Amino acid sequence: SSLHSMPLTCSILMFCVVSVTNVPPPHSTIRPGFPVPVNTNNPGVRKAARFGVYRYNNSSNDLFLFKESQITKAMVQIVRGLKYMLHVEIKRTMCEKRDHSSLDSCHFQREKSLQRTLRCYFEVWITPWTHKVHIPVAHCH
Question: Which residues belong to any copy of the Cystatin domain (predicted)?
Answer without folding.
Answer: 30-141
